[in-house]
Amino acid sequence: MRFQVPQFIEVEDKIFGPLTFKQFIYLGGGGGLSVAAYMLLPKFAAFLIIIPAIAFSAALAFYKINNKPFINVVEAFFKYYIGGKLYIWKKQPKKSSPATTAAKAAAYSQVYVPKLGDSKLKDLTWSLDVKQSLNPVTGDPEKTGPNTNS
Description:
Elements: E1 14-16, E2 19-20, H1 21-40, H2 43-62, E3 64-65, E4 68-69, H3 70-82, H4 98-110, H5 120-133
Antiparallel strand pairs: 1-2, 3-4
Helix pairs in contact: 1-2
C-alpha cells in the first residue's frame, strides 16, 4: 500500500493573499493598535505610538534573523530579562599554611607512582591491573572484590 508523504512541511500556507495566517494577525494587530491610537490620542502622541507599532508588527511579520522568525528573538529577549541569571566567577585559591603543605607532601611521598612507559597500551593495562586488585569499596588490596567472604 502506498502513502503520500508531505514534502514541504516547514513552509506555511498562504491564506490571505501573499500572507500567511501569522503574518496577517501580526499586521492586523499593528494596524488595529495604530487606528486605536489615532482615534483616542492627540495627533502628535498618536504618531509617537503608531510609528513603532507599525515597525514592530512589520518586523514580526516579515523580518528573519538567521532564517528564524523575529518572534523567536522577542521571546528570547523576554525570557532573558524576566528569567533568573546564573553568575559564575573565578574562585580564588586559598593560601595554605606550611603545616598543611608539609602534610600533603608527606602523603604524596608515600604513594608509589611508576614512571609512564612509552606505550599507552602498557600504561592502560597496568592501570587496569592495579584498579582490579583493589577492592572498590574499601580500597583494601587483600579483599579483591565485592563477593569475597570475610
